[in-house]
Amino acid sequence: MHQTTEPITNESYLNMDLLRFTTAGSVDDGKSTLIGRLLFDSKAIFEDQMEQIEEISTRKGKGYVDLSLLTDGLRAEREQGITIDVAYRYFATPKRKFIVADTPGHVQYTRNMVTGASTANLAIILIDARHGVIEQTCRHSFIASLLQIKHVVVCVNKMDLVDFSEEKFNKIREEYTNFASKLNIPDIRFIPISALMGDNVVEPSKNTPWYQGGTLMYTLETVNIASDLNMIDSRFPVQYVIRPQSDEFHDFRGFAGRVEGGVFKPGDEVMHLPSGLTTKIKTVETMDGQLEEAFPPMSITMTLEDNIDISRGDMIVKPNNQPESGQDIELMLCWLNEKKMNPGGKYVIRHTTKEARCVIKEVRYKMNINTLHKIEDDKTIGLNDIGRVLIRTTSPLFYDSYNKNRITGSVILVDEFTNETVGAGMIL
Amino acid sequence: MNSYTLSHLKQLESEAIFMMREVAAQFERPALLFSGGKDSIVMVRLAQKAFFPAKIPFPLVHVDTGHNFVETIEFRDKMAREVGANLIVRYVQDSIDQGRAVEEKGPNPSRNGLQTITLLDTIEEFKFDACFGGARRDEEKARAKERFFSHRDEFGQWDPKNQRPELWNLYNGKKQQGENFRIFPLSNWTEMDVWQYIYSEKLDIPSIYFTHKRDIINRGGTLLFSSPFVTLMKGEKVENMQVRFRTVGDITCTGAVESDAATLEQVIQEVATARQTERGTRADDKRSEAAMEDRKKQGYF
Ligand SMILES: Nc1nc2c(ncn2[C@@H]2O[C@H](COP(=O)(O)OP(=O)(O)O)[C@@H](O)[C@H]2O)c(=O)[nH]1
Ligand SMILES: [Mg+2]
C-alpha cells in the first residue's frame, strides 16, 4: 500500500484546515473498507491497532483483515458483528485534517446519519456499481440535503466487479442526477472507485482511463468549504457572562460566546436581543490579546460601550440585520427516541445557548424518506421518522431558517422526564 | 486559506472553549480532572482561555494513585499555583487504607482500576456534577463512541448503548439528582494535535516527556520504570536506558519508549513517524480486548 509521501511539517500543520465528513451507504457497500483505506493510506492506523485486528480476523477465521474492527469498538458490536453507534475517526494529510463520522446502517440509520451529518461539511454516498441507485441511496441523499450538507461525493464502489465499465458508471450518474434534481445539494461529484483495490481512492486508477476527475482523497483535500459558513448575517449568542471582580479588571463585564455568523469588529454598532437596545462593541477579547475582528467559528469575549443587562441565551446582532423572532416555529423534526413523539406533548427545547419549553401544536405531515412523498394520513412520529411540525415555545426564540444558518436554525428537544435528547429540528 | 478561515487547531481550540463555557453555564459544581500529564495541561490552558480575564471558575482535581513520577507531581503543583486554581488531591492509598479498595496482586500491581473508586468517592464528597477529562477519541476504540457530554448514572456508570445523540453544538446536560457528567472537550483532538498545540502555545510540560536516563525493566516488551512498586521477576534485569514517556499514568503500567528526543520539535517528529499508538505503551489496556470499555462502564475517566 502507498503512504502519503510529503511529511507534515510543523509549519504546515499549524496552517491546516479542517473538513468534517460523513459516510453513507447500505450494509456491505464498502464503507468500512473505504474508511480503513483512507486511514491506512494516511498513516492513521498504527501497527498495534493493525496487529490487534489482524489477530482477531484470523481468530474469527476471516480470510482478510476486517477493517471494520477498527471502527466497531464496543464489545456488543464485536460480539454481534454490527455497528451500534456513530464512531468518529481522525486522519490528516499535509493539506487538511479530517474528522469522519462513521455512521452505521441497520435499524437506527436515520438517527445516526442525522447526528453525523449535523456537523459535516461533506457526505460520501456509496453506491455498489452492481446494484446502482437503490432506495437507501435516496434516503441517504435526502438526509444529506435536509441537513444542508453542501457537498456530496457519490462514490460508485466495487468498480472492479463491473470491469471498470464507463457505461455502468455513466448510467448510475444519470440516474442519481435525475433523482437529486428534487433535492437541494449544490455540489455533487461522482467518482468511480474500488475501495478494496484502491482505485481512485488515493491514487488515480489505471483501470479508468475514461475518468478525468480527481481521486477521492484529492477531492477531500481540495473541496472549497470556506464559503459554507455564513459571513453575512452577524449572530452572537451570549453563552456566559465574565466578571472577574479582581482589582485589575474591576469593572470588566465581558460577554463570552462563539460567533455563529458574520463578522464583529470593535466600533461596530450592535443590537441586543431581546431588549432591542443598541450600543457599540468596545473590544473583542481573547487571552492572546484583543482582536481586530471576530468571525465564525471563533470563541471570543466581547465588551460593549454601554451597560446593558445581558445574560446567557440573549443574542447580539447588527441593527440592520436581525434574525426572526417568535414563539410559533415550523420545524422539520427528526425523532431520535424509542418513545414516540407525543402530539400536544411538552418538551424542553435548546436553541443556541437558550433553553425554553415548547409544546407540539401540530404535525403537518410525515415524510416517506425513501420516496420523498408526504404522508398526511399517518402522523405518528416515532424513532427515525422525519416530519414537519409546528411548535410553540414558552418564550420567543431569535432564529434564522436552517437554510440560512445551521447553528441559529437548529434545535433539539429533550424529554422532561427522562432528560434524553429525543428530537432534532431544523427551522423552516 | 483566506483571512476568514480558522486553522484546524484554532477550530479545535474554539470548540473546546465553547464546551467549557457551556459546562460552567449548565452545571453547578464542575471540576477539572488534572494529572499533570500533557492532555490535562492543555485542558488547563483551554480553561484559562475560556474564562479570561477571570480565573478558572472550578477546581482542579487529582486522583493520586501514589504510583507517580515525582516530576509530574511537582509539575502539577506548580501549574495549579501559577494559574491560581484551587487544587484538590485525593489518594487511592486512603481508599485502600479505609478498605474501600483492594490492592491488586502480582509483580506490577496497577492502581488504574482502583482510581475509579477514589474518583467516585471524590465526586460524592464534593457533589461534583460535571468532571472534565482530557480523554480523546483517537486514544482507544471504546472511546471513539464517547460523547462530549458523557452521561453517568448515580453509580458513575457509562452505558455505551444508551448514549444521548449529540447534534450541532447543542449539548444536553440535563440530569436527575445524583447523576453526573464527564465532559471531554478534547474528543476531536489527536495525539498530534495535542503536541502541536503545546508547541504553538509554548506550554511547559514535565521532563519525563523528553529523553532522559532511567532504570528500566523490560517486561514482555513493555519498558517499565524500575520503581519500588515493580518487583523484579526471574530472568529480568534492570537496565539504565535512554527513554522518554508518551503518556503519564500509574508508573507500574506506563511503558517508556527508547528515544533521543530532547526538544518539543524532536518529540513531534517522533510522534509523526510513530507506528504504535500511545496507549500501546500502557500495559493495562493490553489486558483484554475490552479492557477500556469495562473500566469506563464502571466509572473510569
Ligand atoms: N470486490 C470488491 N469488494 C469490495 C469493495 N469494497 C468493499 N468490498 C467488500 O464488500 C464487503 C463489505 O464491505 P464493508 O466495508 O464491510 O461494507 P460496509 O457494510 O459498508 O461497511 C467486504 O467483503 C469487502 O471486502 C470493492 O471495491 N471491490
Ligand atoms: Mg461496516
Structure, briefly:
The complex is a heterodimer of chains A (428) and B (301). Chain A is an alpha+beta fold. Helix content of chain A is 19%, strand content 32%.
Task: Give a description of the structure.
The complex is a heterodimer of chains A (428) and B (301). Chain A folds into three domains: 218 residues, Rossmann fold, CATH 3.40.50.300; 83 residues, Elongation Factor Tu (Ef-tu), domain 3 (Beta Barrel), CATH 2.40.30.10; 104 residues, Elongation Factor Tu (Ef-tu), domain 3. Chain A starts with 9 loop residues before the first helix and ends with a strand. Chain A contains nine helices and 20 strands. Chain A is of the alpha+beta class. With 301 residues, chain B is of the alpha/beta class. Chain B folds into two domains: 196 residues, Rossmann fold (3-Layer(aba) Sandwich); 81 residues, no CATH class. In chain B, helix 3 links the parallel strand 2 and strand 3. In chain B, helix 1 crosses helix 2 and helix 6 packs antiparallel against helix 7. At the A-B interface, helix 1, helix 3, helix 5, strand 2 and strand 3 of A face helix 1, helix 2, helix 6 and helix 7 of B. The site of magnesium ion has 4 residues of chain A, from helix 2.
